[in-house]
Design a protein that fits this description.
With 116 residues, the chain is an all-alpha fold. The chain has one domain. Helix content is 72%, strand content 0%. It contains seven helices and no strands. Helix 3 packs across helix 5. The longest helix is centred in the N-terminal third of the chain and has 19 residues.
């Protein structure tokens, strides 16, 4: 199996953001806290975001001012400290994905300008 290209990884991150936003659309915190299926879906997409970020070239990411270490750390926390996850924090993180998506769009335009 071939590993995804850097461009594909960035696109995977954007798709995961889109899915998270769709999963929690019109959902308040109490509803999220009571919906195990949506929690699982959102957590899985955060794993994808963090894993994709983990495999991007650190030198490339340094050119874009964003707390990339937090993206990777959140993935590690979900994967390894699953027993300590606070759903309110997951919900709040899911509400604050636009800055990451904006930065990913900037990366695509700058790093992969001639790609479809």
């Amino acid at each position: 199996m071939v590993s995804p290209t850097p461009q594909q990884r960035v696109l995977h991150m954007r798709e995961a953001i889109r899915l998270i936003e769709g999963f929690i659309q019109n959902m308040d915190l109490p509803t999220f806290e009571g919906d195990a299926r949506t929690q699982s879906a959102v957590l899985f997409q955060f794993l994808i975001i963090g894993e994709a970020a983990r495999h991007l070239d650190p030198q490339m990411l340094q050119r874009y001012p964003y707390p990339w270490h937090l993206v990777r750390a959140f993935r590690n926390f979900i994967a390894h400290e699953y027993h300590a996850i606070k759903l309110e924090r997951v919900y709040l993180a899911a509400q604050d994905l636009q800055p990451l998506d904006d930065m990913l769009q900037r990366i695509i335009k700058t790093e992969f300008p001639n790609q479809p």
